[in-house]
Amino acid sequence: MAKVMILGGTAEAGELAARLAGDDRLATVTSMAGLTRMPAPVAGQVRRGGFGGADGLAANLMNEEYDVLIDATHPFAATIAANAAEAAETAGVPLIKLVRPPFERLPGDWFIDVPDMQTAVENLPENARVFLAAGRREIRLFAERSDLWCLVRMIEAPTPGETMPRGEVILGHPAREPEAEVALLREHDIGWVVSKDSGGRASAKIEAARRLGLPVILISRPDLPDVATAAHIDDVIEWLEDELFS
Ligand code: NAP
């Protein structure tokens, strides 16, 4: 049986694990960073927690005799992506990175590209009402601006005492339908959207901003290592077939 490690923590990684679970030629292990308190269930075996850098990941790949490595982490998870590239090279294990396409750019879009979240904070006009869906480390930065009012969407509730910007928190995943995002932005009189250029399922909020003619401050993607990539799960499955069985 071929052993596959999936570096996960994304919806796509979960979908990939579910697709591969039906293939009895494969044994998959999905690796999660372990940051989420209540992660969604994943098909196949799961391991949690860091490896201790690229060397630790390489050692794990060799000791556990993995045949392939699939990096299906988030496009902004730059450290694990670099570690995966280095570890795969050291361990001699073939690697592919699943990279979802960034948000589509359409004529008339009001997108402001910035290199990082701190620059997004600095670029918002005074007293802006902002919609923010980001990780807790990034959300914290907006608390520096007490003039802002932020509607913050988080998957898990802030912990007591956690630094949060002024405004309101709603809990949940991104809506799939732009109509729901339009209603949310209208209800809270949002004037600005801040988002990583993550692509994927969060695109409904970008479409909602487009429909309402709102400016979107988009955080550019970090540089990723020069490795084989696939944009879709089907391409990864085809690659696996070639690597392992042809
Ligand atoms: P990161 O900065 O690239 O990685 C930081 C460290 O976390 C890595 O050096 C590694 O520790 C550990 N790590 C990250 N992903 C791991 C995985 N799948 N399995 C085991 N260890 C992992 O990562 P991040 O941006 O904090 O993201 C952490 C996780 O959240 C990833 O799984 C990512 O897919 C997911 N996520 C990230 C974002 C985002 O915007 N960054 C959004 C949604 C989901 P060691 O060096 O000790 O191995």
Estimate nothing, just give the exact number of structural domains. 2
Nearest-angstrom radius of gyration? Answer: 19 Å
Strand tally, please? Answer: 12
- What fraction, in percent, of the residue positions are helical? 25-40%
Arithmetic mean of pLDDT: 95
CATH superfamily of the largest domain: NAD(P)-binding Rossmann-like Domain
Classification by helices and strands: alpha/beta
- Major beta sheet, specifics? 6 strands, parallel
Q: In terms of per-residue confidence, which ranges show pLDDT below 50 for 5 or more consecutive residues?
A: none
Descriptive report:
With 246 residues, the chain is α/β, with parallel strands linked by helices. The protein folds into two domains: 2-101 and 222-245, 3-Layer(aba) Sandwich (Rossmann fold), CATH 3.40.50.720; 111-219, 3-Layer(aba) Sandwich (Rossmann fold), CATH 3.40.50. The chain has eight helices and twelve strands. It has helices at 11-21, 53-63, 78-91, 117-123, 136-141, 178-187, 203-212, 233-245; strands at residues 2-7, 26-32, 45-48, 68-71, 95-98, 111-114, 129-133, 149-154, 167-171, 192-196, 216-219, 229-230. The strands form two sheets. A six-stranded parallel β-sheet has the order 3-2-1-4-5-12, with helices on both faces. It has a six-stranded parallel β-sheet with strand order 6-11-10-7-8-9. β10 (192-196), α7 (203-212) and β11 form a beta-alpha-beta unit. α2 crosses α3 (78-91) and α6 crosses α7. The model has no long low-confidence stretch (mean pLDDT 95). The structure holds NADP nicotinamide-adenine-dinucleotide phosphate.
